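Posting this for the archive.
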Amino acid sequence: MDETRARGKGILFKTSLEKSLFSSPAACIKSLEARIKKLEKKYPDGDMPDIASLKELKNALELITPADFSRYAKLIALLKSQEYGWAPSKNDDSLVIFTERIETMRYLAENLKKDLGLKDNQLEVMHGGMSDKELQRIVDGFGRAESSIRVIVASEGINLHYLSHKLIHFDIPWSLMVFQQRNGRIDRYGQHEQPDTWKK
């Protein structure tokens, strides 16, 4: 019974690790750090071979720069392209980027500011760990015509159809229902523009 439970936990971790890796190197590193910490506590003598392998994978992931991360590089190319037609200087052209993992959200927020030359007040992040008051502050700010916010990077679904018609799926959720719900955040009654969704 214990062996079956242990095998099940191992499979669950592998699945979780795959999901985080499909999101971003940053998300996978976060998952690895949590797993390594747990194993080191359980095996203080370090006699668990998995620990060395996990650390090796973590070290390899830490070498991946934003320029090396092809999906992120494609996102930057899209946002800078004339075809997409988005510019942070346009007051009436905001966009929403959805991602599954909070660590990926933070990664995007940090690097998009640098690579797009965004000021701190031009990008906001939203996730389920934030208070209702803080989430509402961001939504209210995003909706004002004079708002400086040009980008919202989110792992939390909030109706934004009055505020933006552009949505980018940085990663694809494993649940089709979540995918449809993301699209529905900008594609619903009251939207005056043609919804523009991209899957990276």
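The longest helix spans residues 2-23. The chain has two domains: 2-64, 72-186.
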